[in-house]
Amino acid sequence: MMKALIAVLAAATGLVSNIAAAQESPWLVRARAVNISPADKSDAVGGTGAADRITVASKTIPEVDISYFLTPNIAAELILTYPQKHSVYLDGAEIGSFKHLPPTLTAQYHFAPGTGIDPYLGAGVNYTRISSVNLLGGKGGLEKDSFGFALQAGVDFKLDKNWSINVDVKKVQIRSDVTISGAKASAVKVDPVLFGVGVGYRF
Q1: Strand 27-37 vs strand 41-42: parallel, antiparallel, or unpaired?
Q2: What is the set of domains in the chain, with CATH numbers?
Q3: 63-75: per-residue pLDDT in tens?
């Protein structure tokens, strides 16, 4: 009898939790501070010599993302920022800079919706628009567009009904050919790891 009562109480608790999760607003907005740490992989310049001579500086940027929950467990997240300027180096010497705008869309699975600690995993696509390229005094160039995959892992720590603290890590595929006087000189794999910490608000 006691075991049956415990089972009924456990089922009821789970039902209440699911109902509470289902009643939450589907919209979640987060603001994060994100550190971009590039992989700094590149082909040999001009096809000769050592690889990985071209590097891109790390940077901390602001980020805003908007999530929509299709179900309590499944969400779509759009990650946004404004164009970011990065310095570029060859053998440690600065050779110029460029700006990039990298909106990313991921699909997430949340493992514990409606609870105090909700970890999640995500995967999706990244589109990076490269602009304001100024390399080697104007002789160097980069491709304008980059498409790639994105992987994500994170956790929300709920503070109350609306507010939460978020920790998030993403690996994003960003790649571009490097040209000198119009001819391809190398290919870079920026492929950064993005580590973010921020706050979320669920409407």
Answers
A1: unpaired
A2: 26-202 (2.40.160.20)
A3: 999 999 999 999 9
